[in-house]
Amino acid sequence: MLPKLTEAEYKGEYRIWLKFADATEGEVDFQNELWGEMFESLKDKDLFAKFSVHKELETIVWPNGADFAPEFLYQKLRPDYSLRSKTKINVA
Fold first, then answer.
1. What is the mean pLDDT of residues 7-20?
2. Whole-angstrom Cα distance, residue 25 to residue 21?
3. β-pair type (52-54, 5-12)
4. CA–CA gap between residue 21 and residue 51 (Å, rounded)
5. Residues 6+ positions from 83 with CB-CB distance below 8 Å
6. In the CATH scheme, what is the code of domain 5-77?
7. In this structure, which of 42, 58, 82, 88 has its CB flanked by the most CB atoms within 10 Å?
8. Calpha distance 59→61 (Å, rounded)
């Protein structure tokens, strides 16, 4: 099952408090995640603070089109999480 982000709140600097549908919640510091073409502009703290929760994508998005996969965000709070298929494949 994919994690579903339900709430997010800006906490200052590059920190965002996140809450998922399964009640997993906590604060994530994104300072070291803001690299690459889409994320460089988010080093501007005013722009970084303008994220929103996209209800259909169930993740945070920014006006410049940047977003993080909900699985990535969830793993920041639960490092033991991994997206695995529950289907077993038998190889003869």
1. 98
2. 9
3. unpaired
4. 19
5. 2, 71
6. 3.30.2020.10
7. 42
8. 7
Of 55, 49, 42, 48, give the one whose Cα is nearest residue 5. Answer: 55
pLDDT exceeds cutoff 60 at 28: yes
Alpha-carbon torsion, ordered 54, 56, 74, 27, to 10 deg = 20
Reported pTM: 0.86
User: Residue 6: pLDDT above 70?
Assistant: yes
pLDDT digits (tens, 9 = 90+) for 29-57: 999 999 999 999 999 999 999 999 999 99
Cα separation, 35 vs 16, in Å, equals 17
Domain ranges of the chain: 5-77
Pairwise CA distance, residues 18 & 60, whole Å: 9
